[in-house]
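Students often ask why inverse folding is considered easier than folding. One informal answer: many sequences map to the same fold, so there is more than one right answer. In these notes we will look at a single instance of the problem. The structure comes first.
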């Protein structure tokens, strides 16, 4: 299909991306790929603020309800989801709208990521032994690749273990490995990026409204169910909206304090998202929601 087109719609949490993307998809014959680190989970529906089946309005979505809350994933999961979404869009003669709640994944699709080797069980066992003392593990890596380790925090257990696995499996330092395996971008065509910009006070009101709606729609019951079925161990159970409810269930917060904590933590997340988007995506169109709606719904944005 020669006339296949795609665009990305980004913006901070609660900025109105999901609803607008569905409208644009209807008008432009498109599927939607969601890049969201919480909406990817099945059964986390209210806490993730994902559009429900009715709200999806017969638009095919990728990246929603993919794995269970106790299943791990990493950035390569979203690369696979993008490939699936694009393949299906081409097959169905549709366009593709990439909606980036977690814009880091969009950055990886555009800029690429190095392919990592499969890690053997023997290597994992060696890593686990070294990881019993995190600082020692860090110093071990630092001694063999000082320049690369400078960019990793000494308490960043996830990245330290990942680099340990890489070194022990390949006998190459991270610097050597990534030089030999440069990043491969998944999106090589020009990708128009549209960013919903929201003033801080307006965004805080939107976050407040959404938080109240989540609580009213059964957020506490959802988290109670998730804890019962998956325990508190999975990373998904440490997400905003879930961890505050767990503290409320433990008696640490009143219901009002729980709501305020969710509001505060969501606003902090939105600030980090805006900072990331400003640093990563230089070529983009930034507009308030009503102007973005007018642009995407009433002008030709797909080729």
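Output (designed amino acids):
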């Amino acid at each position: 299909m020669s006339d296949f087109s795609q665009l990305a719609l980004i913006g901070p949490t609660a900025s109105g991306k999901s609803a607008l993307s569905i409208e644009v998809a209807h008008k432009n014959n498109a599927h939607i790929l969601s890049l969201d680190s919480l909406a990817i989970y099945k059964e986390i529906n209210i806490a993730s603020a994902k559009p429900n089946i009715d709200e999806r309005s017969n638009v095919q979505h990728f990246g929603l309800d993919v794995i269970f809350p106790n299943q791990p994933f990493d950035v390569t999961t979203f690369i696979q989801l993008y490939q699936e979404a694009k393949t299906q869009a081409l097959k169905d003669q549709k366009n593709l709208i990439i909606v980036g709640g977690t814009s880091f994944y969009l950055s990886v699709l555009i800029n690429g990521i190095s392919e990592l080797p499969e890690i053997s069980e023997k290597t994992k066992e060696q890593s686990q032994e070294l990881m019993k003392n995190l600082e020692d593990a860090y110093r071990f890596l630092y001694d063999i690749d000082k320049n690369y380790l400078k960019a990793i925090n000494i308490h960043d257990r996830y990245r330290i273990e990942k680099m340990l696995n890489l070194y022990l499996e390949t006998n190459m330092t991270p610097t050597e490995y990534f030089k030999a395996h440069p990043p491969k971008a998944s999106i090589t065509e020009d990708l128009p990026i549209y960013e919903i910009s929201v003033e801080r006070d307006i965004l805080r009101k939107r976050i407040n409204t959404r938080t109240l709606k989540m609580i009213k729609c059964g957020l506490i019951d959802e988290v109670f169910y998730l804890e019962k079925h998956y325990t508190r161990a999975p990373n998904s159970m440490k997400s905003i909206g879930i961890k505050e409810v767990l503290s409320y269930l433990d008696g640490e917060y009143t219901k009002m304090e729980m709501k305020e904590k969710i509001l505060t933590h969501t606003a902090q997340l939105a600030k980090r998202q805006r900072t990331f988007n400003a640093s990563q995506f230089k070529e983009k169109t930034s507009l308030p929601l009503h102007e973005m709606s007018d642009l995407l719904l009433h002008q030709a944005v797909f080729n």
